[in-house]
User: Fold Organic solute transporter subunit alpha from Electrophorus electricus.
Amino acid sequence: MDYLNETIDPSCLHEPPLALDVIHQLDMFGVALYSILTFMASVSLLLYLEECVYIYKNVPSPKKTTIIWVNGAAPVIATMSCLGMWIPRATMFTDMTSNSYFAVVIYKVLILMLEECGGDEAFLRYSESQMFRINTGPCCCCCLCLPRVPVTRQMLFLLKLGSLQYAIMKTVLSIFSVVLWTNGNFDLSDLEITGAAIWINPFIGVLTLISLWPVAIMFMNIRNTLRRVKIIPKYAMYQLVLILSQLQSAIISILALDGTIACAPPFSSIARGSMFSQQLMIIEMFIVTLVTHKLYRRTYDLITLDPHENDNELNKMVKLHTASLEEHVA
Assistant:
């Protein structure tokens, strides 16, 4: 065992390097790579700020607040990944900030679909005779025997609560994890039964699945109604950010813990895996930002009914927006 320890570079057992150490070890390729990735993250943030100004001027409340929250998922993750790339020891803080923000976005996606329907009251009024499917992912996609449920105010409250709980609990557990980490009790590489990470992370995973279910139920049942506002590609972008920020990062972390991602001084295996994850995230979130900028930067006008249109779903959507307009006028 002592012989094996002597063959391991001491830096592979140390904490992630300081920011100055990262800068000093960069070669020409590293400088070019870090510069390009920083530029991508900066452009993502600037595009988001420009989009916020446009949404604020052209969209009425409260929809504009919801759109700004949802539209900020990719730029916020890209910005935090860029900070974590330059300052490796801040990775835990940047990752938890990104994850906590996205936890709120999951709830806001549900609210956005309701507001595109004209609000809660309009949604309930024109969905009271419908029955919603609940056998959808990620919890019950295989449970075909589950009955359809009526659309009621109580059912809508439960859907909102299911998504809201994750936004609250994720933030609370993130703060708790940081407190434990400062005391030396939280370590992602500690997989023993006495470690805090082995209990907190699976619990967060369960809360995540519970929060995704209500959003999937709402989308599966009203996607045709909201097709004219491009809800399907918007939902696809939300799902893509979810997969990249959660599943991809988890896979890279497992590979780093397993030693598949080799140590490269001054980066240990875990720190190097985290660096790879952040660099990939910046590129991916930059592309997602460009797509979402195109989807959300549109003219937000009330949809009018075409007398030659026989699409029942379009008629339903027009009624929802008309009811919402009548409520504002009243």
About this structure: The radius of gyration is 23 Å.
